[in-house]
């Protein structure tokens, strides 16, 4: 079974307007309330790809209730631990630029944290544990290290998609897969990454330290996959960008769905990039047919440190 875990879910209040002016009254007319948070997005796309999974994490209040109902209506299995706090609402303003306001995560008590750890302990060899999204500063990193240890001891595939100091610490647990974007990869090394050449060399350092797969996503430029044996670059398909929120999560879903169905890492990566772009080209997350229609446009190139130029 594939389990996703979103410690900090959200409702993504997504609204479109031609020109967003800060410091002014802006009126919008196209509004969507999507369940969000990285693990939840991974679950939604996995389900759309026909891959069974369960969404774990924490949710509470009327927003938490909305998210659970929405997911269940879509056929996504959920097993959230309830919080007293209301789950956050993240604001996504789609205008000539994309502006995002992401709220903080919930304060969680020891009981709630042990409940999640129990769920991870109950997982079995061959399962996947996808820990995705921001991790509140109030929870010590040692707690997540413990979850990663449980995964290692039980041969559960640990996938990590987070950012900031948590990512820096948790890469030491040598996840099966991480998917930083260029900026997040840079944060890991306290530098600014620009271009595939530099991304490749830093992703390679992570692989040398023992990680299984590193995918560096680079928005409209595509992505890189680096493993112990190979490194490939994918160009993203071209299209009309509508909403890139969830593109990274869709890439992760496409990779996992394909790999879990027996495809190798390169094919899984290609499928993931198609899913990421298919999401960027629509308001909500991609559907299977959108991703598959783009697959032939995802061009892969093997790369090495010498021949990547941009
Ligand atoms: N403007 C775009 N055009 C085409 N594909 C895109 C675009 N933005 C994102 N994507 C696709 O989604 C993937 C993930 O996007 P990215 O923005 O790097 O992730 P994140 O949302 O995690 O920052 C990219 O690798 C690419 O396949
Ligand atoms: O947990 P964080 O880092 O605040 O991110 C949460 C946000 O990320 C998203 O999951 C989108 O992530 P990506 O665009 O990176 O795929 C939104 O749904 C959500 O609002």
TrEMBL record:
It holds the Pfam family PfkB. Keywords: ATP-binding, Kinase, Lactose metabolism, Nucleotide-binding, Transferase. Residues 11-285 form the Carbohydrate kinase PfkB domain. The keyword ATP-binding applies. Its EC number is 2.7.1.144. GO terms for molecular function: 1-phosphofructokinase activity. Pathway: Carbohydrate metabolism; D-tagatose 6-phosphate degradation; D-glyceraldehyde 3-phosphate and glycerone phosphate from D-tagatose 6-phosphate: step 1/2. It comes from the Bacteria. It catalyses: beta-D-fructose 1-phosphate + ATP = beta-D-fructose 1,6-bisphosphate + ADP + H(+); D-tagatofuranose 6-phosphate + ATP = D-tagatofuranose 1,6-bisphosphate + ADP + H(+). It is an enzyme of class 2 (transferase). Belongs to the carbohydrate kinase pfkB family. Belongs to the carbohydrate kinase PfkB family. LacC subfamily. Catalyzes the ATP-dependent phosphorylation of fructose-l-phosphate to fructose-l,6-bisphosphate. This is Tagatose-6-phosphate kinase.
């Amino acid at each position: 079974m594939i389990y996703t875990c979103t410690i900090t879910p959200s409702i993504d209040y997504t609204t479109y307007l031609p020109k967003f002016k800060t410091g002014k009254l802006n009126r919008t007319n196209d509004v969507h309330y999507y369940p969000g948070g990285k693990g939840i997005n991974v679950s939604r796309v996995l389900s759309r790809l026909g891959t069974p999974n369960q969404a774990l994490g924490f949710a509470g209040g009327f927003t938490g209730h909305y998210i659970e109902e929405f997911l269940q209506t879509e056929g996504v299995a959920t097993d959230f631990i309830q919080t007293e706090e209301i789950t956050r609402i993240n604001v996504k303003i789609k205008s000539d630029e994309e502006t995002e306001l992401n709220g903080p995560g919930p304060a969680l008590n020891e009981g709630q944290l042990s409940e999640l750890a129990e769920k991870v302990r109950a997982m079995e060899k061959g399962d996947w544990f996808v820990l995705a999204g921001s991790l509140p500063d109030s929870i010590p990193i040692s707690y997540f290290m413990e979850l990663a240890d449980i995964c290692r001891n039980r041969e559960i595939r640990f996938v990590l998609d987070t950012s900031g100091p948590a990512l820096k610490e948790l890469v030491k647990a040598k996840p099966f897969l991480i998917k930083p974007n260029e900026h997040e990869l840079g944060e890991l090394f306290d530098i600014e990454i620009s271009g595939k050449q530099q991304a490749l060399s830093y992703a390679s350092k992570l692989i040398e330290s023992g990680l299984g797969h590193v995918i560096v996503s680079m928005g409209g430029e595509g992505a890189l996959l680096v493993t112990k044996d190979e490194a490939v670059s994918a160009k993203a398909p071209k299209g009309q960008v509508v909403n890139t929120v969830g593109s990274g999560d869709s890439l992760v879903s496409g990779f996992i769905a394909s790999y879990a169905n027996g495809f190798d890492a390169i094919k899984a990566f290609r499928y993931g990039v198609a899913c990421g772009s298919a999401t960027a080209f629509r308001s909500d997350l991609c559907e299977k047919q959108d991703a598959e229609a783009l697959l032939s446009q995802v061009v892969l190139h093997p790369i090495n440190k010498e021949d990547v130029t941009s």
